[in-house]
Amino acid sequence: MMSYLILSPIFVPITAGIALLLLPDKVFCGRRGLLISVGVIAVVSALLGVLAVSGAAGSSVRLFDIAKGLSVYFNIDNLGRLFAALVTFIFVLISFYSFAYMAHEKNERRFYAFYLMTYGVLMGLSFSGNMVTMYMFYELMTLVSFPLVLHNGSREAVMAALKYLMYSFCGAYMALFGIYCLYKYTETLDFAAGGVVWNSEFPAAGNTGLMLVAVFLMIVGFGVKAGLFPMHAWLSAAHPAAPAPASAFLSGIIVKGGILAIIRTVYYCVGADFLRGTWVQTAWLTLSVITIIMGSALAYKEKLLKKRFAYSTISNLSYIMLGLALLNRTAFVGGILHIVFHAVIKTALFMFAGAVIFITGKTRVNDTAGLGRKMPKLFGAYTVAALGLIGIPPTNGLISKWYLAVGGFESGVPVFSWLGAVALLVSALLTAGYLLPISVRGFLADENNRSTSLGYKEPPLMMLVPIFILAAVTLILGIYPMPLIEFVKTLL
Predict the structure, then answer these.
(1) I need a surface site. Which of 24, 189, 396, 401 has the fewest CB within 10 A?
(2) What pLDDT score does 32 carry?
(3) Diameter over CA atoms, the chain
């Protein structure tokens, strides 16, 4: 029975989301009943997730076979535990934040329905035991998160959602071609640390060229969700259009679904040794470095607050890509650490943007001038998160960037062993340039600035407390990172 506990955090929220979408309003007794329902489901799902994450190692369940060698299969491993714990933590915080934020939005019930389904699908992605199951939930992730982007129904939101949908499907079809090749030329699609052992006993040994093309298409295809150049444009359109809770979940967690799929492909299916020193590694590193610099530069120039954070997400996701593409243990640890750290920090930043919009209705960076004097707690928490993204001690961002830079030097990859560190440094300087002015202008704006004369005040506690928690975690993981680092080292 313990193995079937894996299915609880997957299907409980999916079922609850469907019920929330289909059942009549009177069942939920208005808005208060709706919030109670979602709150209970959120807590229950989180507890089930924690129980599943703490389950016995190797606990698994194979539901049914699709074809010979293809089955819907779930399995708990350390990578799935880490991702599931991160998803659950962020999900619960955004749930409580959204209760206050969504009060001024329409169609709350629809939002919470798809939000719950997205959580369940992400848990399914975390616990997928083979490539087929992972791909199924990867596609579902796009479908159930799509309504979150178009929530307000404006033309901008609809176009952004369609862009998100088309980019995601195109990337998924590229990845699907690679899965076909893996199925044809390998013995199994089940995940195992270290990946498939490529030798003369495997049919793939005589099809190396085709397999390299297939793996590259999978990296680029899954990389669409992670905003990898040149398939990044959807991200900067989707974030500003979506409500702040959806933007926070999208940037903090959903885009990491593409990263998780790439990790499973390279490190748990194909094997890093197969790619080391090939043109695929060179191309992957090239795209990662380009995306790091491009995303930071675009964020530096952007005047819309949420869009600036969206471009920042594009850049930071390629920090992770760089660490994975170096195919080096130290860089891999840095990449996984940055998954966690970026999820915490960027969720806080989008919550901050949502709080500013909720209180003032302002959406531009320059509109935040003077607001820090009216909302010092909010801007103080933002400043901590911003320092974390820049990588200033004692915040957590420094830890992941250190491992990424050291891993690059240790990798010995020509050019990229030092170019990666240079890209990280340039990006950090640009990050300081587009994040810190918000704090400086917020606290130190001219007394005559109009914002200081308006009756703005701190956002409700339901919005403020989750941001505080995330800011605190940013500091805690920077001061005491070793438990997490030791756990990440077990993933290889």
Answers:
(1) 24
(2) 56
(3) 76
